Amino acid sequence: MMLIYSKEWEGGLPPEKREQLKAAHRASIDAARRKGILLAAEPLAPTSTATTVRMQDGKPLITDGPFAETKEQLAGYYILDCENLDEAIEWATRIPTSCKGGEGCIEIRPMPGLPRDD
Amino acid sequence: MIDCRSLAENVFREESGRIIAGLIRISGSFDRAEEAVQEAFAAALAAWPEHGVPSNPAAWITTTAHRKLIDAARRHRTHVEKQESLRYEIESGASGGSEDGEEVMYFPDNRLRLIFTCCHPALNREAQVALTLRTLGGLSTQEIAKAFLVPEATLAQRLVRAKRKIQEAHIPYEVPPPERLRERLASVQAVIYLIFNEGYTASSGAGLIREDLCAEAIRLGRVLCELLPNDAESLGLLALMLLQNSRRAARVREGSLVTLEEQDRSRWDQDAIQEGLARLDQALALRQAGPYQVQAAIAALHARAKAPEETDWNQIARLYETLLEWNPSPVIALNHAVAVAMSSGLEAGLRQIDALRASLDHYYLFHAARADVLRRLDRRAEAVKAYERAAALTANPVELEFLNKRLRELT
């Protein structure tokens, strides 16, 4: 699983950059699909829409916003069925993290629950 | 009478990396490979004194380790690792009996795979070092912990975590593709050089074990050159380590650091120097410039000078300039400034050193270098102040003793 962390833009991305970013994601998604390894890929709505639920004394404590205020926020994810970490890293370098390209980062996490046929 | 234990230990030290690399390839498991080698080693200690040492001890241990792995795979068959056992069967089925098994084990790429897996950038540097020494170097957890002055439990934990990450994050057991080879190789070289420096900088205290680290780093450097004979930087790294290590015996006298200038050059290890120079020539002939080769070239200029006055400081200053182009770090700039002081004049060098104060004011070598130039300029009062500042910034007893000696000479 590749978690995309990006800096959020105040008031959302400017339309032109938004289109660039979408096109870049479309390209990675298509490439992964052609290779037959795409399991899922999804953008997330900004953290201004996030709600955090934490159980406290058996009752849900509901707060507005993400679980932690950090410089970069979870913005979306890909789930790719990679052979090994190197292949996953290779894909991670192709997934855009923001329209500027250089901002943000990708965290790769194995999903041990998925069946693997190696 | 042959001392079976030390013979077995030698074989173990020399061969375990190769054997473990082969067994990991077959079993897909670091732990199982290590266990099999340990068991084979124990079996050797039990069998050799009684039945005599086999004509080819390394092959004996390899074959035995291979068999232990089969036994373990059978034992584990009913467990969760069914898939791994299957993989084992496929591979061993293809290779047939034990002689072919040995061929699989000796296939040189296995050690290369192992190096790249141990030094994978997804592992932290400490884990890379520990894994490399443990699997390729065949050092025990206890030995590694001692050499790096960490509790054994901490080191064991580090190894367990690293191996778990390799398994769970699916860090591949492969030589990286050509387009990634250079950057990944840089990580391997950094690990080997770190092991060397850990042994080289602390020439006091834990003594022997630390010398072992230098020897181990050089051995790993040789393995890397053997596996990648056309990689100039690997050759450069080996040359650098050999040339630095050649001065080992002359570097410390009565517990105090001896500067290059004051070292008894007759105590330099000429064999190591000759080999270092030969490796450097080999590297330079490949025409792929790189920082290890440049550092080795600097070490070579020192090694070639029969007396301190014969040192080609002009050339050394030029080499540091090249190094600065790749890596504009203030520490390299300091070395460059010292070379300038020794070649173009002390005043010019001092000006360059002083220009680095903002970034290096807390670095003891900055003040030690400055003090040395002031001493040569006979500006005694300033030199004393600079030596005192340097002494306040280091805790290493060998370095402290050196600085105090200088202070005594000046006052």
Write the topology of this structure:
The complex is a heterodimer of chains A (118) and B (411).
Chain A: E1 2-6, H1 15-34, E2 38-43, E3 51-56, E4 59-64, E5 73-80, H2 85-92, E6 105-108
Antiparallel strand pairs in A: 1-5, 1-6, 2-5, 3-4
Chain B: H1 4-27, H2 30-51, H3 57-76, H4 82-95, H5 98-106, H6 109-118, H7 125-136, H8 141-147, H9 152-168, H10 178-201, H11 207-227, H12 232-245, H13 248-251, E1 252-253, E2 256-257, H14 270-285, H15 291-304, H16 313-326, H17 330-343, H18 346-354, H19 357-360, H20 364-376, H21 380-392, H22 397-410
Antiparallel strand pairs in B: 1-2
Summarize the structure in words.
- The complex is a heterodimer of chains A (118) and B (411).
- By secondary structure, chain A is α+β, with helices and mostly antiparallel strands.
- Chain A has a single domain, classed as Alpha-Beta Plaits.
- Chain A contains 2 helices and 6 strands.
- In chain A, strand 3 and strand 4 form a beta hairpin.
- The two termini of chain A are 18 Å apart.
- The model of chain A has no long low-confidence stretch (mean pLDDT 86).
- Chain B is mostly helical and 411 residues long.
- Among the domains of chain B are: 1-107; 328-411, Serine Threonine Protein Phosphatase 5, Tetratricopeptide repeat, CATH 1.25.40.10.
- Chain B has a two-stranded antiparallel sheet.
- The longest helix of chain B has 24 residues, at 4-27.
- The model of chain B is unreliable at 85-101 (pLDDT under 50).
- Classes of the chains: A alpha+beta (118), B mainly alpha (411).
- Chain A binds chain B through residues 82-89, 108, 110, 112, 118, and chain B through 83, 120, 122, 168-172, 174, 176, 180.
